[in-house]
Amino acid sequence: MLSKQQKLRWGILGCGRIANDFVMGLHLVAAARVVACASRSLEAAQAFGRMHDIPTCYESYEALCCDPNVDVIYVGTLHTLHYPHTLLALRHNKHVLVEKPMSMNQREAEEMIALAREKNLFLMEAMWTRFFPAVRQVRALLRDGVLGAVHAVKADMGFAFPANADRIWKRSLGGGGLLDIGIYPLAFVSMVFEGEEPENVHTVGATSADEGVDTYAVVTLQYSKNRFGTIQYSCLADFVEEVVIVGEKGTLRINAPAHVADRITLSLHGQPSQEMHFPHPAPAPSKSSFNFGGSVGFMYEGEAVTQCILNNERECSEYALSESLLLSRVMDSARKSLGVVYEADQPRSSL
């Protein structure tokens, strides 16, 4: 068991752009230390290690997972590889934070969670947005009943991705908008309705003619008592990207860009709107630079996971594994409506 006085030792599996940003955010977490990284080539791992002052670099993911000096693995590879790489780390008795989406489908997510529980290890899908102070404040306001009964949630996310963004446009890489960006607004809906199972999921959208991946969609989740959440996402256009929560007493808005929120607005009937600000922290000194806006906020997720593991917890109450499973079910349903099928969805051979 780890001591709370120890620093949690992180290993980075995959040295791409998102891993770069995560490590830069993690440098702000006092109780965390990145001790090793691995890539598909030793040269890439060593370049990443030099950039981020990581002492040990591997050309094999298995070698990283075998390192006795690593406590937890961050899986930052392509969507299609989250499942095998998470299982690899868990089988070597490492705690795991795996980038979202946790898996390609519900079946994979269930197996990942089952193994983590069997091995008594921490596992979490990296829904980093959940840990921003602005989003935490939204959850606190909802718990306090500031809006009264919530009737509806509206959320959107859209980017005009370039034609060479293979991770979006290639089916073999787990491409499509739902798994990459649609999961964000879906997670906001799930957050507001506290992981409740929707009674119905209705999806309309379109797929690309060449690869058959989803290019845009509107998904409506219907809940009991006439409540609903509607999300929109697009890989073809830049959206405002905000979340609006409508209740009997007014509205609560997570202002754009909601996935890296630093501002929320509460508008109660008959009262002036109240705007609350939550500035992002200053980045730690680094030889690198962020690839994505707001990535300094990875600090909040890294801090939460680090504390959970040091406290000997096996999942994070702010983003539980049951919610990851729920989102995987919703996304499977939405993909079925759109006709998006991945290799991971095919029946497995019994041989």
UniProtKB/TrEMBL annotation:
Keywords: Oxidoreductase. GO terms for molecular function: D-xylose 1-dehydrogenase (NADP+) activity; nucleotide binding. It catalyses: D-xylose + NADP(+) = D-xylono-1,5-lactone + NADPH + H(+). Residues 135-253 form the GFO/IDH/MocA-like oxidoreductase domain. Its EC number is 1.1.1.179. Residues 8-124 form the Gfo/Idh/MocA-like oxidoreductase N-terminal domain. InterPro entries: Gfo/Idh/MocA-like_OxRdtase_N (IPR000683), Gfo/Idh/MocA_domain (IPR050984), GFO_IDH_MocA-like_dom (IPR055170), NAD(P)-bd_dom_sf (IPR036291). Belongs to the Gfo/Idh/MocA family. PANTHER family: OXIDOREDUCTASES, TRANS-1,2-DIHYDROBENZENE-1,2-DIOL DEHYDROGENASE. This is D-xylose 1-dehydrogenase (NADP(+), D-xylono-1,5-lactone-forming). It comes from Achlya hypogyna.
